[in-house]
Amino acid sequence: MLILASKSAARQSLLAGAGLRFAASPAQIDERALELQVLGKGGGPIDVARRLAEAKALALPARPGQVVIGADQVLALGGDLLHKPDSLPAARSQLDRLRGRTHALHAGIALVVDGSLCWSTVETASLTMRAFSAAERDAVLALEGAAALASVGAYRLEGPSIRLFERIEGDYFTILGLPLLPLLAALRRHAPTVMEDSSR
Fold first, then answer.
1. Which one of 32, 34, 81, 96 has the minimum C-beta count within 10 Å?
2. Closest CA to 149 of 139, 158, 141, 157
3. Residue 197 appears among annotated catalytic residues
4. Per CATH, which fold does 2-198 belong to?
5. pTM, two decimal places
6. Tens of pLDDT, residues 34-46
7. Cα–Cα dist 2/80, whole Å
8. Which entry of 72, 80, 96, 197 is annotated as an active-site residue?
9. pLDDT tens across 55-78, in order?
10. 42 in helix, strand or coil?
């Protein structure tokens, strides 16, 4: 049984698009506490992304034959980590911080088989926003609506927010929060029956 420990619609769509049969069961962890713990020990954004993914994959009760995918994404702007905005004014402020600058998206992913962590990695994408106007920002947020609050960057590349970008370097799946090619390779190596079950 394949479990995705995430409520992200984008991640679920990517897994379904790859033809995998799975159930979604969001993991409950204190993300900010874990982030502070990693940073307090001298870790950086990549370490935070990896630990969050591992913690989510390990948070679900272990069951025989169960394969759990944990995933999380960290946005780093210079030395700062940005989080999901909790309101549209906060989304405006966050986009203003990103305007005309380059930021990194670190997507962590982990695989737990039969209760044991067997694999994890972090993939990184670099994104540069245009020096957009306040009117452009507000027009995009009006189109995005509440969806902007579900993203760590207050934007969705698969939505109207793409208008705000100048350059993108990195894997599209990584940007959406699920590095799919490394994940599929890990499933073939560590949980081949999951791949076989999905092809039947």
1. 32
2. 141
3. no
4. Maf protein (3.90.950)
5. 0.92
6. 999 999 999 999 9
7. 34
8. 72
9. 999 999 888 889 999 999 999 999
10. coil
